[in-house]
Amino acid sequence: MAEGLRAYRLIAGMWIRSTLAYRASFVLTVCGNLLLTGLDFVAILLMFSQVDALGGWTLPEVAFLYGLSVTAFGTAQLALGSMASLGGRVRDGSFDTLLVRPAPVLAQVAADRFALRRLGRGVQGAAVLGWALVAVDVDWTVAKALLIPVTLVSGAVIFGSLFVAGGAFQFLAQDAAEVQNAFTYGGTTLLQYPPTVFGRDLVRGVTFVLPLAFVNWVPAAHVLGRPYPLGLPAGAAFAAPLVAAVCGALAGTVWRAGLRSYRSTGS
Q: Most buried among 29, 35, 219, 261, using CB within 10 Å?
């Protein structure tokens, strides 16, 4: 673990220094990325210009869901977003060069072409979350306040697990970046809206099959005093760290299985 983190830090640092060599370009790119990702929340604002509630949830409550989801996803994307490029390396054979380097392969893939411009998504999500925390009508307690950072960290780990598992799947499919994006980018878009606007079967799948509901739906229900999705027990809001740990362990297992199955390009 320590060796992997060190390798990740060194490789990511190299790409960050390269990016900051052109600071004006970097600032413009981050600002553009921030504005582009902010269009998702603009769409929500447009909806609320026509309605007072969405699925029974007010604008500050939906903004709370949005902030939790986008901040957690932005953190995972910043750290592991490069996993989506693994399929290209497998197809052109350049993945072989990572296998002979004296550093953990996962750390090399995750830090490869580290894109600091992705910082814009997390910053934008955090800004919306900050506004939502002030605007929502909540009777704050110590437990609820502590649940916010715990939920953000757990959500980032859950999304990060999807990035790693999706990368492992590309050992088999080789061109599965869009399949991975359907669960990562698609997942965070889904979570930006309250569970009450979706069918029960979809909510059940997002809770028990692919546990994205623990990124924000379940913890947010506890904080806002709303009924839990699918009538989950009262302690479910505090299960996010356990769910994240299980997702991380499964992603690690899938990654090792995918790496063992790699047979190069044959060229």
A: 219
